[in-house]
Give the backbone structure.
Amino acid sequence: MRLFFRFLIAAFALALLPQVGWAHAFLDHAEPAVGSQIHSSPVQVRIWFTERLEPVLSRIQVFNAANSEVDKRNVHIDGSNPALLEVALSPLPPGKYRVVWRVVSVDTHVTTGDFTFILAP
Amino acid sequence: MYSKDFRSPKLAAHLAATLISFAAVPLPAFAHGFAGDRFFPATISTDDPFAASEMSLPTVSAIRLPGMPSFKDITLSADLSVLVLPRTALTIGDAYEIQKPPNQRAITGFDNTDLNILYEFFENDKHEAITSLGLTWEIGGTGRHSLGASSFSTLTPTFYFGKGFGDLPDQFPLLRPFALTGTLGLSIPTRAGNRSVVIDPSTGKETVSVSPNPDVLGWGFALQYSLIYLQEHVKDIGLKAPFNHMIPLVEFAMATPLNRGAGGLTTGTVNPGVIWSGQYFQVGCEAVIPINHHTGSNVGVIAQLHFYLDDIFPQIFRKPLLTP
């Protein structure tokens, strides 16, 4: 029993430790926001993740309703924030757009996802 | 009868060899608990289909169990899962139980140790679907008999599944964060019945009684609504921490004896609760509501602290242990 409680205390201590490891990157927030409706064409899509990203293997693609890619294929990580991934856009007509992302955090965990935004007239 | 929580593994790391053509870049690892875009948390009262390196320490439950008279049961359990081969994990689990009948001293001790092997045999990322097979060996005689731990072993082959609903049409956006995991297992005791001999003090005659050990169909599922999925994939509704990492869920943990005179009487609990999932660990808490008087008549509680070992110690657990 005493041993069990020692394990218990160790478990809680582990949970309270500063976050020393790395983990999979979750989407924290995005511009345009996930599922949002906007009224002017965005110049870029920016996604903030919860972990630093591996630049070579992380990407964002933006597709229109006809499934044509409309981004400028210049995905890059922000110079001052290694968890911020960006891609520039050409001027867009009104419509529904799908953002597809696949990122690799610096510990090589892969996460993927997609979301839509609507550009209203 | 409320059954001891025994969480078997969740998903883990698949190696994505085909992704990489850059020799200088380390091989990516897929994180535990993912099928496509969907992150499945480790459910508390039912098992989930993922093979991963993880640890539940502790799982604490408290409930009043039926009996003559009924008694309080507090269980502190732990389990450790290690991904040993791609898609294959081994788990060892045990529990320390405290049973307190009214006006009597508490009986304490360990339950039988459980070993489990789980293999993920199917995954479809697009449809956020995964299925696994597992085998649990409850090792008879390793726990305290007076607490109800059996002296014989029980083998439980189990089918596990998980399915996210992110592939629903765009017309149903608010249904897409739903997901379902579940299990179907058959517990087969290695002894069909227990013989006991009682001597009647007045007559001196021996009476032999046999209590049957039926095969039991264990079935359960967890219906969950991921606010993580809602925020990341459907609509950013502005949830802030800690709510943006919460997964409300309802678990159903059931057992139906099949034979040896005990067939058909299903017992189980319905467990509504919430899990918060962070980068390295998750915490969860559920109410434990018996479905009938045979299960119990009081609401209990179960809570769990669960660690993602592959994220905490990626140098050790990022790859299966037995993979060169």
Notes: Residues 16-21 of chain A have pLDDT under 50 and may be disordered. The two ends of chain A are 67 Å apart (CA to CA).
